[in-house]
């Protein structure tokens, strides 16, 4: 046993990595053979899988990857080819609701990625890239430090010059992608630690501010707090909160994810809230799985289960409470994009649509191939910029085909990815916004023109 000096809890060390030429998986949480056996290779997952849609390769489909997991469990070594197919998975989980056998591919790929991170040595350049990403993105303070330089780059005219001259094409793909998806830096509203309910108090909720959401979409957090308050919630926003661990757990960095999860549980426990509200799909899906993540830790297992049960997407909370604040008309056509970790991982599909349809004058339009990921998928668009751009352009084409004036979704990664793709396709007439921003505009009686296009 090792002792975590920061949190004071025991945590069992995972087994050491397996030597070269040995079976693929060690004894610490390998893919569950029973879950692997649930797959009957029927192929219903194929139309929902983005990488299969791109390439039509069996090993780049969910059932193909499950076959590779089965080989690993049977003693096959963790080859470079096997890892490549696992890495190509976006983790969008569209195959989970599509599967008639109820195969838990989400749990299988998460367990497999943990094995890959422990037992496979990546090339030096890839290790450096991943190291840089995880030294930055899970740390809100470090991300906020980028706001000043990014704002100067955008406002000085240098960004327009770089894009007009074609310099981006000469940059390494990951740098070009980061430049393309970077959202406009706007004024960051400072939220108090407590936002009081307007009218009779109906609930006391804590609010996650997030990493990318807090640094680059602070206006979404401000809108979330206002909407919750107008609907009768006291909103507590703990200052000491940090990363939820979503990026880490989705990329096999289990120990790191556990540390982030323990800290977040401690912070919100001290706040004394009934529910923890999340406005970023990837964060919410991970936080709802804390019970599994921390199941091996005696000091946190029960607390993690209770915490996970309290986590709600903001649209879930608003639907559970029911509307009390009057909605003002908002005459705008909206295309709603399902964020993968909201629709597929959390099963939240009807709530955001019902909330949008409850706004007078708003017309909701559906997007073709709604189940296909936009290509963001956490850090997938940084690690695999080519396939991600293909998926983003495909999504942008379907969005433009709706003829809507506003694209609405529930995840910062989606907002950045689709905005970049729309810009490449010349979709300058459509704005982008988070679901709560549309609700906020309606509750405050703001004009549709006030939705200026988050992520553009």
TrEMBL record:
Pfam families: CCG, Fer4_8. It is an enzyme of class 1 (oxidoreductase). Keywords: 4Fe-4S, Electron transport, Iron, Iron-sulfur, Metal-binding, Oxidoreductase, Repeat, Transport. It catalyses: (R)-lactate + A = pyruvate + AH2; glycolate + A = glyoxylate + AH2. SUPFAM superfamilies: 4Fe-4S ferredoxins (SSF54862). Its cofactor is [4Fe-4S] cluster. Its EC number is 1.1.99.14. Binds 2 [4Fe-4S] clusters. Signal peptide: none annotated. InterPro entries: 4Fe4S_Fe-S-bd (IPR017896), 4Fe4S_Fe_S_CS (IPR017900), Cys_rich_dom (IPR004017), Glc_ox_4Fe-4S (IPR012257), Helical_ferredxn (IPR009051). Residues 1-26 are annotated as: Disordered. Residues 1-12 have a biased composition (Low complexity). Residues 31-59, 80-111 form the 4Fe-4S ferredoxin-type domain. PROSITE patterns: 4FE4S_FER_1, 4FE4S_FER_2. One of its GO terms (molecular function) is metal ion binding. Component of a complex that catalyzes the oxidation of glycolate to glyoxylate. This is Glycolate oxidase iron-sulfur subunit. It comes from uncultured Mycobacteriales bacterium.
């Amino acid at each position: 046993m090792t002792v975590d000096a920061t949190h004071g809890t025991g945590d069992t060390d995972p087994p050491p990595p397996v030597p070269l030429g040995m079976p693929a998986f060690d004894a610490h949480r390998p893919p569950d053979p029973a879950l692997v056996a649930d797959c009957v290779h029927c192929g219903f997952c194929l139309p929902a899988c983005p990488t299969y849609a791109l390439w039509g390769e069996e090993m780049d489909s969910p059932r193909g990857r499950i076959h590779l997991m089965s080989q690993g469990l049977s003693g096959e070594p963790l080859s470079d080819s096997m890892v490549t197919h696992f890495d190509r998975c976006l983790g969008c989980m569209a195959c989970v609701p599509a599967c008639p056998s109820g195969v838990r591919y989400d749990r299988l790929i998460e367990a497999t990625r943990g094995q890959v991170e422990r037992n496979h040595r990546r090339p030096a350049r890839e290790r450096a890239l991943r190291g840089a990403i995880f030294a930055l993105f899970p740390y809100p303070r470090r991300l906020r430090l980028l706001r000043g330089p990014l704002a100067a780059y955008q406002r000085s005219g240098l960004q327009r010059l770089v894009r007009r001259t074609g310099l981006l094409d000469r940059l390494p793909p990951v740098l070009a992608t980061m430049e393309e998806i970077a959202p406009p830096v706007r004024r960051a509203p400072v939220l108090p630690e407590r936002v009081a309910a307007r009218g009779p108090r109906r609930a006391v909720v804590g609010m996650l501010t997030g990493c990318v959401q807090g640094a680059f979409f602070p206006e979404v957090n401000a809108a979330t707090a206002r909407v919750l308050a107008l609907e009768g919630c006291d909103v507590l926003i703990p200052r000491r909160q940090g990363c939820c661990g979503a990026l880490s757990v989705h990329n096999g960095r289990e120990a790191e994810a556990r540390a982030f999860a323990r800290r977040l549980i401690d912070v919100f426990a001290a706040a004394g809230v009934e529910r923890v509200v999340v406005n970023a799909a990837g964060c919410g899906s991970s936080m709802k799985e804390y019970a599994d993540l921390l199941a091996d830790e005696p000091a946190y297992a029960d607390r993690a289960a209770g915490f996970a049960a309290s986590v709600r997407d903001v649209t879930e909370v608003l639907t559970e409470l029911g509307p009390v604040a009057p909605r003002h008309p908002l005459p705008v056509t909206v295309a709603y994009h399902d964020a993968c970790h909201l629709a597929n991982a959390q099963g939240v599909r009807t709530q955001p649509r019902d909330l949008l349809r409850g706004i007078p004058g708003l017309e909701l339009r559906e997007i073709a191939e709604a189940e296909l990921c936009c290509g963001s998928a956490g850090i997938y668009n940084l690690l695999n910029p080519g396939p991600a751009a293909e998926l983003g352009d495909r999504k942008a084409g379907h969005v433009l085909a709706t003829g809507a004036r506003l694209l609405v979704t529930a995840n910062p990664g989606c907002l950045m990815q689709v905005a970049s793709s729309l810009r490449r396709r010349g979709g300058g007439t459509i704005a982008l916004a988070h679901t709560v921003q549309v609700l906020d505009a309606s509750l405050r009686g703001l004009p549709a023109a006030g939705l200026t296009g988050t992520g553009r």
